[in-house]
Amino acid sequence: MGAYILRRLLLVIPTLLGIMLVNFVLVQFVPGGPVDQAIAQLQGGGDVFESFAGQGNDAQLNSQTNAVNDSYIGARGLPPEFIKELEELYGLDKPAHERFLMMLWNYMTLDFGESYFRKIDVVDLVLEKMPVSITLGLWSTLIAYAISIPLGIRKAVRDGSRFDTWTSGLIIAAYAIPGFLFAILLLVLFAGGSYWQIFPLRGLTSDNFSDLSLLGKVLDYFWHIALPLTAYTIGAFTTLTLLTKNSFLDEIKKQYVITARAKGLSESRVLYGHVFRNAMLIVISGFPGVFLSVFLGGSLIIETIFSLDGLGRLGFEATVARDYPVMFGTLFVFGLIGLLVGILSDLTYVLVDPRIDFERREG
């Protein structure tokens, strides 16, 4: 098993390299880089895309400036020396391959750079935002397991009944609802949109959080995350519930269950004393993968809708602002977490069921 883990860890390096390379190449073809963003802010445009929209309104162009600044649509009337200084400031005066190799070298030395527009180290930004995303992802995964496992067992026991049919319909319908659409619906219904003002609209804590008692802080925290957690978790029940149900149905049909019943054991003793332990192997071992899917799949849109300062929202804002250090820093973190969780999933399989041998399978 040690050799398998080592091989998987070594594969992390070329995989991350491929992820970074593909995204770096794609970014080179996307208009509106950090220089355009800086120019738009300096000229009061607020956003580079407004400069794109108004590019046909300036008739009088300085010929010398035009020759230098063809690639910067918003740089109308700005001296070429100033544009050159901006390029040097953001490191865009070097060829793309040099910038990519320099970025990789900095990442190898754990130097992720500084945000172009926030003037904060990328590492500090990521460490600041990561607890929000991890907390929401972890709570969502725990809630999904807490509901899906009992529901899946119940569906397996009552397979083919009306209960099994209508619960299947409900969880499939929940799976089909886009998370962002359900989040907006929750805001409209319960956060003062058009009906009830029951839950807060944004943030994880109240303004007076520091003045509350310990119990008050706990209640305030759960009061704030109720809607985001619901939106996060709405689509996570289906796969887990059906996986639990099918695992139990497979185990119930096996010979040892028939033998246990023939010995006179009660149905609950057979179900929870014998079937549960074997049927839960694949469900429990899939915990890291479920957490990763919730963590990566819902963080961007849900955090943006509920104004939560997590990694998803940080990456989105960095992409809009063309803040390359933050963009690639969050991409690196997401990619690394995804690859490590994949390895953790394999380890969990082995810990739960020692009969699994990945080295023998690879051989």
Automatic annotation (TrEMBL):
<dbReference type="InterPro" id="IPR000515">
    <property type="entry name" value="MetI-like"/>
</dbReference>
<comment type="similarity">
    <text>Belongs to the binding-protein-dependent transport system permease family.</text>
</comment>
<dbReference type="InterPro" id="IPR035906">
    <property type="entry name" value="MetI-like_sf"/>
</dbReference>
<dbReference type="GO" id="GO:0042884">
    <property type="term" value="P:microcin transport"/>
</dbReference>
<keyword id="KW-1133">Transmembrane helix</keyword>
<feature type="transmembrane region" description="Helical">
    <location>
        <begin position="165"/>
        <end position="191"/>
    </location>
</feature>
<keyword id="KW-0812">Transmembrane</keyword>
<keyword id="KW-0472">Membrane</keyword>
<feature type="transmembrane region" description="Helical">
    <location>
        <begin position="279"/>
        <end position="306"/>
    </location>
</feature>
<keyword id="KW-0997">Cell inner membrane</keyword>
<dbReference type="Pfam" id="PF00528">
    <property type="entry name" value="BPD_transp_1"/>
</dbReference>
<feature type="transmembrane region" description="Helical">
    <location>
        <begin position="9"/>
        <end position="30"/>
    </location>
</feature>
<keyword id="KW-1003">Cell membrane</keyword>
<feature type="domain" description="ABC transmembrane type-1">
    <location>
        <begin position="130"/>
        <end position="349"/>
    </location>
</feature>
<keyword id="KW-0813">Transport</keyword>
<feature type="transmembrane region" description="Helical">
    <location>
        <begin position="326"/>
        <end position="352"/>
    </location>
</feature>
<protein>
    <submittedName>
        <fullName>Microcin C ABC transporter permease YejB</fullName>
    </submittedName>
</protein>
<dbReference type="GO" id="GO:0005886">
    <property type="term" value="C:plasma membrane"/>
</dbReference>
<dbReference type="GO" id="GO:0055085">
    <property type="term" value="P:transmembrane transport"/>
</dbReference>
<feature type="transmembrane region" description="Helical">
    <location>
        <begin position="221"/>
        <end position="244"/>
    </location>
</feature>
<feature type="transmembrane region" description="Helical">
    <location>
        <begin position="132"/>
        <end position="153"/>
    </location>
</feature>
